Amino acid sequence: MSSSGSPVPVVDPRGQRFAASVTSVVLAVVLVLQSPWLLALQAVVFALAVVLGPGRSPYGLVFAKLIRPRLGPPEHPEDARPPRFAQGVGLVFSLVGLVGYFSGLTLLGAVATGLALAAALLNAVIGFCLGCELYLLLKRLTPARS
Amino acid sequence: MSDAQDPAVGRSYADGVLVGVVVLAVVVTFVGVFSLYRRSTDGVFATGRTPTTPPTAAVDPGLAPPAAAQDELGLVEPDREIIVEGEVGEQLGERATVLQFSSAFCAPCRTTRVLVSAATADLAGIAHIELDAEAHLDLVRRLRIVRTPTVLILNRAGVVVNRAQGVPKRAELLAALGAAVG
């Protein structure tokens, strides 16, 4: 847990790309198999990343245990707050998807899962952080204060 | 739980699979196209744009110049915005200024800060000012900033003569500064 006085929590950016790749595959399988339970598992992974930090989410731990030892330490560890925020965005999408699938609104479930997939895939492919970009645009929409 | 004997349930599952496959195809296509677009525009300054000549009239800080029309991304219309020192709280460079908009949730912003600082450290009269976009929303709207990091190049009069979204390429940044200094 970081307070304002302690150093900023960091995360290995390569671990984030790995986690985004695994997430993309899982969500693609959810879409094709119509599997709300698999989506629920992914939502749990998102929630753990938000609560514990992305480096300690299940995918982050797999990366740390199995993959990082082969790669060596990261050149530049990154601030953990943006990816954590992004995982929160993924969590929101997957919760909406769960509501859709479990209430029989398959289209809602598929579209929300598709949005989460788009965010994860963009992160995996070009390191693009959808939540981070939407953040400023949403801020801009708030009425101007004189 | 689904009842395998009920043909309606089987059909709705098949429909669901079809919907899922279609959504998957749309998402993958979109991500592919967007990634290519991003790769080609990220960190690129509008090369070949001639710096606008600063108006000779003094600028009233309270009166923002009219925003350049329509182009929300600021990629087509040359900027004619003028930044005055009061708006950014720091001294503009004597010859030119690199004005960087950043936000807390932004990994590339740090990369940009390091790159711009290193590129401008040895250049006399070039200031590097970094602003938190969230704390300067009026400026963000006026300058049509849609992403962080966005890097603006100001000439000595504070006129925005160039901009790049995303982490700028060092050589382009230096070329843009050279053009701004004139």
UniProtKB/TrEMBL annotation, chain A:
Q: Answer whether the UniProt record assigns the keyword Transmembrane helix to this protein.
A: yes
Pfam families, per database record: DUF4395
Record's keyword terms, sorted: Membrane, Transmembrane, Transmembrane helix
Organism equals Microlunatus panaciterrae
Organism taxonomic ancestry: Bacteria, Bacillati, Actinomycetota, Actinomycetes, Propionibacteriales
Q: Which InterPro entries match?
A: DUF4395, UCP030042
Protein name, as recorded: DUF4395 domain-containing protein
TM spans (from-to): 43-64, 85-103, 115-138
Instruction: Outline the extent of the DUF4395 domain.
Output: 11-140
Q: Out of the domains of life, which is the source?
A: Bacteria
TrEMBL record, chain B:
Signal peptide extent: none
Top-level taxon in the UniProt lineage: Bacteria
GO molecular function list: isomerase activity
* Key word DNA-binding present: no
Cite the Thioredoxin domain residue spans from the record: 94-176
Q: Does the keyword ATP-binding apply?
A: no
Task: Report TM segments.
Answer: 16-37
Keywords attached to this Swiss-Prot or TrEMBL record, sorted alphabetically, are: Isomerase, Membrane, Transmembrane, Transmembrane helix
State the name under which the record lists this protein. Answer: Thiol-disulfide isomerase/thioredoxin
The scientific name of the source species is: Microlunatus panaciterrae
